[in-house]
Design brief:
Strand content: 15-25%
Mean pLDDT: 88
Number of strands: 22
Strand order of the largest sheet: 2-1-3-4-7
Radius of gyration: 23 Å
Shape: globular
Helix content: 25-40%
Bound molecules: iron/sulfur cluster
Distance between the termini: 54 Å
Low-confidence stretches: 1-9, 95-100, 137-141
């Protein structure tokens, strides 16, 4: 526990925090850290120096489960007082609702103090209060209005909803996070405004299904700044574009499904209000595989839709993820996917070899493929994806692009690293910036620079700052 300072005032209790998992988990972590700070707790950089450790876990794929369990083990060994939250905390062994089912984390690490599921700031705080009582004087004034961000100050994730109404057969997120719950549009816009006002230059809109925003509340009309606004993706995106404009900031959309109403936001992209970038998790192209996956918008004609998007906004960059070797995938179905990739010319594509996630209904589908076939198909897919992506990157050589600077030691005298509108942080490539030619030109993290693209290398571009 905390020891007294020389002046006799007790030091604030220190909480260690580890945040694992996706951007959605990261925003949960930010909420918890903000609350801790608001109540006067300090954070500790080491397990050993903390009064208690919180581990925010991920439970999506088996590797993430292992990483989370290992981290909990380390925290227990080094500190001994551990609270677990996040997706893995909601996982049980034995079927859901089954009498014999038991919490997975508790079964493996029975010494943890408390376990909660995702999106459980209050439960986590209750557990913290129980084991490390609140300090007397909450330093509420020290908390910035926009909370504590774990991402660098110049970009931030904006979570617009929790949960998902779909039931994709390979996914267990709905069983962990529940059905879609959209945040009130006024709250979302207030948060966006305060982020821009605090210096955020890139806002990344996230959820499980961004295009479904507002479905759960029947697109109810909310209020913001005293004016009515519908809880709907098109209206949200329009307002975010308006909020970003005076700050010269970017708005980037993730996890958008190819529903017809997505066409409505293309004009905002074409006019530069929001970035012409769409992260659309297609997962496959063949209608039968999509049906077996129970994918949303599986009946849509995705190739035609993509072509229409490109006609409406020629500079649009599309990122997507795919699964190769899904149960029952025939060679012909896989070839269909390769043809789709060649024709659709997806700018940034990732591919997973299908891997069963415990608890997912796809595990019971007939026609499971051997690991070697799944891996070989993933490699064949990536060869096509990389040739498409390299050709697209090579086309940019000679162009001038706006680049947001992420890293620039010594004011960029030796160059730096940034991203163009085509690169989302952490998942896409970067623009490696050469040292500026003019002695007066500096590069600063969180600022924009124009750059002439002089070469393409792997997933990245090389740019000369102008
Ligand atoms: S859309 Fe499908 S993959 Fe995405 S969270 Fe919902 S169920 Fe899972």
């Amino acid at each position: 526990m905390s020891s007294p300072t020389p002046a006799g005032a007790p030091l604030a209790p220190r909480i260690g925090f580890v945040s694992l998992g996706c951007p959605k988990a990261l925003t949960d972590s930010e909420l918890i850290l903000t609350q801790l700070r608001a109540e006067g707790y300090e954070t500790s950089k080491s397990f050993a120096g903390a009064d208690l450790v919180i581990v925010n876990t991920c439970g999506f794929i088996d590797d993430a489960v292992k990483e989370s369990l290992d981290t909990i083990g380390e925290a227990l060994a080094e500190n001994g007082r551990v609270i677990v939250t996040g997706c893995l905390g909601a996982k049980t062994v034995g079927g859901a609702g089954d009498e014999a089912s038991a919490n997975l984390v508790r079964q493996i690490h029975p010494k943890v103090l408390a376990v909660t599921g995702p999106h459980a700031t209050q439960e986590v705080m209750d557990a913290v209060h129980l084991h490390v009582p609140k300090p007397h004087d909450p330093f509420v004034d020290l908390v910035p209005a926009h909370g504590i961000k774990l991402t660098p100050r110049h970009y931030a994730y904006l979570k617009i909803s929790e949960g998902c109404n779909h039931r994709c057969s390979f996914c267990i997120i709905p069983s962990m996070r529940g059905d879609l719950v959209s945040r009130p549009i006024g709250d979302v816009l207030n948060e966006a405004r305060s982020l821009f006002e605090s210096g955020v230059k890139e806002l990344l809109v996230i959820s499980q299904d961004t295009s479904a925003y507002g479905v759960d509340v029947k697109y109810r009309t909310g209020f913001w700044d005293g004016r009515p606004v519908r809880t709907r993706m098109t209206e949200l995106v329009e307002k975010l574009g308006e909020l970003a404009e005076p700050h010269g900031a970017w708005v980037r959309l993730h996890y958008v499904y190819p529903y017809p109403h997505v066409d409505e936001i293309l004009p905002f992209m074409a006019s530069g209000r929001i970035l012409p970038y769409l992260d659309v998790p297609f997962q496959h192209s063949h209608p039968d595989v999509l049906k077996r996956m129970k994918r949303p918008a599986s009946g849509e004609r995705n190739l035609e839709r993509l072509q229409r998007w490109r006609e409406a906004c020629p500079q649009i960059v599309v990122r997507s993820t795919f699964i190769a070797g899904f149960p029952g995938e025939t060679e012909a179905e896989f070839e269909h996917l390769l043809d789709f990739m060649r024709e659709a010319r997806i700018d940034r594509a990732g591919c997973f070899a299908y891997s069963p996630v415990s608890g997912a209904t796809a595990n019971g589908l007939p026609g499971a493929l051997p690991t070697e076939v799944r891996e070989a198909r993933r490699a064949r897919f990536m060869a096509v994806a990389e040739s498409v992506s390299s050709a697209k990157l090579a086309d940019r050589v000679g162009a001038e692009m706006q680049v947001l600077i992420d890293h620039a030691p010594a004011l960029g005298r030796k160059g730096g690293v940034g991203r163009s509108y085509a690169d989302a942080p952490e998942i896409d490539g970067v623009v490696r910036l050469l040292p500026p030619q003019k002695a007066s030109k500096t590069l600063k993290v969180g600022e924009f620079t124009r750059a002439r693209i002089v070469a393409a290398e792997g997933h990245d571009l090389i740019g000369q700052p102008l």
